[in-house]
Amino acid sequence: MKVFAVLNYRWQRIALLALFTLLSACQHVDNHVGTNASDTSNANAVIASDGDHRAYRYLQLPNQLRVLLISAPDTDKAAAALDVNIGSRQDPLQRQGLAHFLEHMLFLGTDKYPNADEYQDFIAAHGGNHNAYTAFEHTNYFFDINSAYLEPALDRFSRFFVAPLFSAEYVEREKHAVDSEYKANIQDDQHRALDVLREVVNPEHPLAKFSVGDLDTLADRPDHPVRQDLLDFYAENYSSNLMTLVVVGREPLDRLQQMVTSRFSTVPNRQRVIAPISAPLLRAGMLPELVQIQPVQQRRSLSLAWPLPDQHDDYRGKSLDYIGNILGHEGAGSLLSALKQRGWAQALSAGQGLDYDGGAEFNLSIDLTPEGNRHTDEIIGLVYRAIRLIHANGIEDWLYREQHIVADQRFRFREIPEPITEVSHLAGNLHDYPAAEVIRGDYLMEQFEADRIDALLVQLTPQNMLVTLISPDAATEKTSAYYATRYSVQSISPQRTQQWQQAAANADIKLPAPNIFITDQLALKPLSANAGDKPSLLHAGDGLQLWFLQDAVYRMPKATITIDVQAPLANNSAQHAVATELLVRVLRENLNEFSYPASLAGLNYDISRSGRGITLRVDGLDARQALLLERMLAALHQPQIDPVVFARVRREYRRQLQDNNKRPPYELLRGDIDNILVRDFWTDSELLKHIDKIEAADLQKFARQLLTQIHIDMLVYGNVVASDAQHLGALVTQQLLTSARPVTPPPVAVLHLGTHDYRRTLKSPHADAALLWYRQAADNSKSSRAALGVSAQMISADFYARLRTEQQFGYIV
Known about the structure:
By secondary structure, the chain is an alpha+beta fold. The chain contains 24 helices and 22 strands. The protein is globular and about 80 Å long. Residues about 1-30 and about 30-40 have low confidence and may be disordered.
């Protein structure tokens, strides 16, 4: 189970209850095709993407529970999710964390299935997984299972919302589980910052409450045992008219409807109505204000937030997304580019932050360098220059059209998620969008409203701004109640806000140029006669193995190019491993301004260090892939090591290595497995010994040496034909292999433990502890892998039930 206290996911919005209650009982509509559906008269026909040929049906049960059914005859996994429009927002002031506690207790037995482990045992025994999370306005329950067992799984799942037991014998135990979950994140900087936000916001706003809960907030009190409060909370809030259900299964729609209707129609409808939050997020007269927070890790960030009116009605236009896309641009002339040129920033993001029924927030966050930490006033001034530039010249139809085209293509050619991921997300979306738009709603961007964009920009002022600076050097004077975060709050003077407001225009910040990677020339290439299901080897020799497979299954205008450059020099010592990682990071920096427009247009890339060298990857819409790949290969062939960029990259890499030992104990143990088992896998401490021995000139020399002896494995897969793959292989040969000597690097070697018993203890700065037990297979055969996988699935539920639920040894098992 997870607790998400943040609100910036789109699933938590749009009260369309009035629309749905107009539908007659059990009214349903089907849509068996995608966006080319001809029956446009049916307002609830689900609009699906081009490659999605599943059948859909939306219906409303007599108790007003809204349901989306998806018939997917070929799916191996069935899945279901129920989202209730109740979250930590509804926690009683004297019972903070109660919604989250209810989420825990709900799984522990029902009238029909009283055994507390029945549900999870059944799911695990039939190849499935289950989970839930509590958010500010939603609680979301979901599972998947082998397709043949969907109906009995639904039978168990449905009873949680009809007749849960909330057995007294498990109350004390689950209180400790919630407390363990809270304490497991005491050192997590995101939770710590949210704890400060909780104390800074208006105390009348529900966000000011502690959403996780602990042994104190959930303690029994005279005349108020927590179990009775739990029963009262469930009876008051868990109402079918606030619930949405999504089910994916192999069965036809009619059969799925029978499964659902017979089980979920009995969920009680208490006619619960939720009013929008009327209290302002921040107290009147509070802004502008500066909050400084001291983190656990050595990270530095600057966040600017502006409270705004509710934006739920703008899901078709997404005006805030339009503004965020421009402010968050990373191409040439962008705000981030200007900050990087000054050595002040590592990364930047902008867009809608908090999003709840009754209000919203626009947020701009910058990952600072130590030098940027000393220039926050100048950085804020640059932000306002960029905002003024958009206001004066950036509310343009052509810019909006570009964003619309990209959003539409992302929807049309979306890859269908795993069933468990999809049902959870769509159950939330049913609260946000009309049924017809439950999938497309996230991607819609079809209403350019210049006046609305203008009105939003007018509100992005220094006088309406909350500034949050997270830094090891933060000036602090307070300690937050639950996560012991050191912080301070101070007003910002009118003189500073006036300086920011009047900051002069700057020539090195510009609006985005037209995106050369956006194209409407997206076409499927004819299937070759010999298209199969396994890659074929097109070329072997001269240091290159080129594999090719044309996609004959998904049939989308997408492709993936993977190039594994294997070089003996890349990882044969800790110093060379550091140099390879620094080279990879510098290459990403060098490519960022050119590649960012490509990422906006649905074309992604990655350059990463692997166990034997460097891996290059390009994936997404295939029309412009060769253009991006050529630039990547040229960057690797002749890397430009700018000393300023190098210094910034090295500093950030050093910080990450130093912060790695501050991770939670269970993450430290997982990371340590590779240190023990993999040959030439260098520990963080070993890498840190060498990071300051390498300068920009050393890296330039190393980059030339690295490519003198290499071997390349390359795979081209997707909407491509053999001649496309051969052309791309020729590009790789020309750039990387012409002057290189082909070699065969040794494989990555894994230590065979045999029958020995290895024990190892790690130190951790955290107050809690963890234990990891590793069991190695006798060999690397497919049968051994399968046997281990099946064994893990069989015993996982028992491990969880015994160690976490019964014996309370820890929250994470």
